[in-house]
Amino acid sequence: MQTQVRNEKMLLAGEWVYTDKTFGVYDPQNNHLIARVPLSTTRDMLQAIEEAEQAFQTNKGWPTHERIKVLYGVVDYMEKHKELFARTIATEGSKTITEARGEVKRAMQTITISAEEARRLKGETINFDQNEGSENKIGYYYRFPIGVVGAITPFNDPLNLVAHKVGPAIAAGNAIVVKPASVTPLSALLLADAFSAAGLPKGMLSVITGSGRELGETMVTHPSIKMVSFTGGLNAGEKVAEQAGVKQVGMELGSNSPTIVMKDCDLKDAIESSVSGSFGAAGQNCIGVQRIYVEKEVYDDFVEAFVSHTNRLNVGNKLDDNTDMGPMIEEKEAIRVENWVDEAVEAGAKALTGGKRDGAFYHPTVLVDVPDGVTLAKEEIFGPVVLIYPVNSLEEAVQRSNDVDYGLHAGIFTKNLDHAFYAIEHLECGGVMVNDTSDYRIDEMPFGGVKNSGLGREGVRFSVEAMTEPKVVAIKL
């Protein structure tokens, strides 16, 4: 039975509106149309930005306690409707219902932390008398909101990654305009509904749905947008950086994340964690495990057990509680992964399991003997494929881990502190997870990478700081 198609409105400067034109949102599992959503125009984006600027000017004195009240109100709304949020995530995207429920829980935590960080947004006093001749001066600095934030979000965490932009923006006292991924806009609209219900001042949030090609440049280049917060692919990120000009830009652009397995580790834990980190959300995760470097003494045992665990994964209906992995976001993405795997196999790689596609489903795939020059050895796969390599030493594992143009997260399994700290010091990335995979993250920690993995850091406190500016006050007595 086909799901009833919903006709959705978007939040434009505090008003829920339809547009003359719409586009379809489809369940990637069966390609059923589940909703029709406004297809915005450049004029809609301009209106959202201009009214966001007006709302920000009107609410410049917005008290901290009122921001906190709104954010906690959003959490209350989400608690009351958490199954609706979860089913929305699972239906429009790739996540299983179990994974979607986990994302709702994390998004609630993200908004909660945002409320807490609003309370902690402080400056500090400055000792001006450290400078000769300034003995008669006192002062301090404080942080003020930058104005209007423009946010562009991806499909793979359609609720929590929106929360990571909207929560900090509101905590800091900014207005924000969000352009969610066109394939998964429903979760962002549902979060906007929560903010409306919580009493957010009109115009402080807009969620504008439609084509990135149509709307993105207008947002990024508009002079009222004082910061662009972008999560997505490298090519789009480079274009955003080129267009933005002189304004704050924060970017998370993905990775090709490594995990190192030393012979002295808890092998059972390393295997179970690495399987989960490789295939969660159908591998469509910027910190998901893509490359595993295993010390040769335990390589054969690791690979055998890893493949066995992978084969036990239940691939199927996203809404079934027993399903471990659903489809990729679109069939064209599954075809892309299929082509990359076929290229690697033709070049000499061996698929120990998987390597099969069924529509948008691509089965969990384990590759060994992968040549260095093939696409999936260097680029972000963003699919359920993992590459396993034997290494002779930690130094070799670290060197090979660094031999890509990305550096977001890395993991290492070891019981040896010297090994752990060698990896911490020498891995070129934004985060090193010891006795866990690259896939570990909590929403309070600084999150971002080096090289082509992006600019700046997310994580609520760090986003709030990026969305504010320090102002120095010096008083001559």
Automatic annotation (TrEMBL):
Transmembrane segments: none annotated. It comes from the Bacteria. The keyword Oxidoreductase applies. Keywords: Oxidoreductase. It catalyses: (2S)-3-sulfolactaldehyde + NAD(+) + H2O = (2S)-3-sulfolactate + NADH + 2 H(+). This is 3-sulfolactaldehyde dehydrogenase. Belongs to the aldehyde dehydrogenase family. Residues 17-473 form the Aldehyde dehydrogenase domain. The keyword Nucleotide-binding does not apply. One of its GO terms (molecular function) is lactaldehyde dehydrogenase (NAD+) activity. SUPFAM superfamilies: ALDH-like (SSF53720). Its EC number is 1.2.1.97.
